Amino acid sequence: MPPPVEEIRGQFPLLAREQDGKPLAYLDNGATSQKPLAVIEALDRFWRSQNANVHRGVYRLSEEATEAYERSRLVVAARLGADRREVVFVRNATEALNLVAYSWGRANITQGDRILLTEMEHHSNIVPWYQLASERGAELDWAPVTDEGRLDLEAFGGLLERQPRVVAVAHISNVLGTINPIAEIARLAHDAGALVVVDGAQAGPKLPLDMAELGADFYALTAHKMYGPTGTGALYGRRELLEEMPPFIGGGSMIRQVRRDEITWAELPAKFEGGTPAIGEAIGYAAAVQWLDAIGLEAAHAHEAQLGAYALERVAEVPGLRVFGPPAGDDRAGIVSFVLDGVHAHDISEILDRHAVCVRAGHHCAQILMDRLGVPATARASLAVYNTRQEVDRLVDALHDVRRVFELD
Amino acid sequence: MDDLYREQILEHYKRPHNFGRLERYDLEFEDSNPFCGDEQHVFIRLDDDDRVAEVAFEGKGCAISTAATSMLTDELQGMSREELLKLPKNFVLDLLGIDISATRIKCALLGLKVVKGASLGQPADWEDEGERGEPTEAARSGI
């Protein structure tokens, strides 16, 4: 049994914050989550008593910092069912995807090659591929999204016949809340000879992630959306692929030997970690993984899915409101994007803020999807393990107030 | 009474003035707010003295950006291109007559940016978006 939501909330100092005398309803978890004490204290402990640069320090403090840093990698690797050499610490999911597009992409993509994306990708899983394609004369294809907000698997299958070298897909859409069937996508893509790069930024805090089960060749994660600190994340890459790939960022730590006429690279994963990493943050990341494991990922997911279903049902009561994404169900996460006839998303967000309800408004770094949906922007409530029905109710009440302010009633 | 969404702003948002395209125009420019993706396209017809004879705009945006451009376009008649380029930000903010938060200031100024772009025929040099660090400013705000 997971702890009751009130007990979970008690572990998040920020959730005690009030705005204009109202408790804050933080519903912008798709952008970043709040941090539990377990993470804040792990960071504090490191900076206060363990800080030293990692690797090569021949003194106890540095050895301790190195051990803590490498232990964090093991924690993340265990969460992914991966070998520690397959886990590269990066700044965020964006950097993870760029690493793949730069390193694997520049070594493998040539003129006329095809790269298959989906219409629901975040810009971080579009822009690096666009840059690669422009540089190499490769072509981008876009797997369409159905009217219900799902990936059109039939059309996706058709596009695979064009034999893309790589398929780049989000595990969970940051706008639609759609949970894509990665295992099936990977099977189809592999049968067609393509590698699969998964943007797991939204899935990190929501789903159990077993890389072998999912069949992902690369999987990008960020810590700050899963109760960890900003500035760190992880790229999972299949070992055979990472071994073959050239380094991404050159500098300290990522080399074996530097000679005037020849430089050789360090072993995995150091090869991809040039420069001093975000050491304390990686330790905070591991603390977040362990905190979430203690709550229980399945319990966390069940809570969010139930609350998401409740939110979908409640916001639909607001006249003129249109929700995007599939109906509540197994392939729908607690991310609820909507538009309200006659009111721009920014104005919705501004008025909700007066009720101390935090949602995001805009294109959510998904302009291709906005075009597909035919809207310039949406408002988005995205739920986390600590959100409550009362907060969803306050969202709905505040939406009624938006209608009142805009004189729509 | 809602200050930001007071009657006049809602009125301009719901029924923007000078909304649409001009059939004949001498200047036009389109730009978007990278923060939210809102777009505005402005069309200006000049008279024989090269002054604004007619102006129209279209696009999609929030209440603040739409109302601001609606109000702004009401004021441009008779201005020369140089005068358009010299319009200060406060010209628009005064028209709106409300406090605008840091995040919404780009909404409020999108129309002015597009009008200046039309006047120049290229993106206007927009130096007030915080690219230049102001140490005293930062110190004052306690960053």
Describe the protein.
The complex is a heterodimer of chains A (about 400) and B (about 140). Chain A is α/β, with parallel strands linked by helices. Chain A folds into 2 domains: about 5-30 and about 295-405, Alpha-Beta Complex (Aspartate Aminotransferase, domain 1); about 40-295, Aspartate Aminotransferase, domain 2. Chain A contains 14 helices and 17 strands. In chain A, the strands form 5 sheets. A 7-stranded mixed β-sheet of chain A has the order 4-10-9-8-7-5-6, with helices on both faces. In chain A, strands 13-14-17-16 form a 4-stranded antiparallel β-sheet, with helices on one face. Chain A has a two-stranded antiparallel sheet with strand order 1-2. Chain A is globular, with a radius of gyration of 22 Å. Chain B is α+β, with helices and mostly antiparallel strands. Chain B has one domain (about 5-120): Sufe protein. Chain: A (Alpha-Beta Complex), CATH 3.90.1010. Chain B is about 40% helix and about 15% strand. In chain B, helix 1 packs across helix 2 and helix 2 crosses helix 5. Chains A and B meet through helix 12 of A and helix 2 of B.
Which SSEs are present, and which pair or pack?
The complex is a heterodimer of chains A (409) and B (143).
Chain A lengths: L4 H5 L8 E2 L2 E2 L1 E2 L10 H13 L10 H21 L6 E4 L2 H16 L5 E5 L8 H10 L2 E5 L9 H8 L5 E5 L11 H10 L3 E5 L11 H4 L3 E5 L10 E5 L1 H6 L10 E4 L4 E3 L13 H17 L1 H19 L5 E3 L11 E6 L4 H10 L2 E2 L1 E3 L4 H7 L4 E5 L6 H17 L4
Parallel strand pairs in A: 3-15, 5-6, 5-7, 7-8, 8-9
Antiparallel strand pairs in A: 1-2, 4-10, 9-10, 11-12, 13-14, 14-17, 16-17
Helix pairs in contact in A: 2-10, 3-10, 4-5, 11-14, 12-14
Chain B lengths: L6 H8 L12 E6 L6 E8 L5 E9 L2 H12 L6 H6 L2 H8 L8 H16 L14 H7 L2
Helix pairs in contact in B: 1-2, 2-4, 2-5
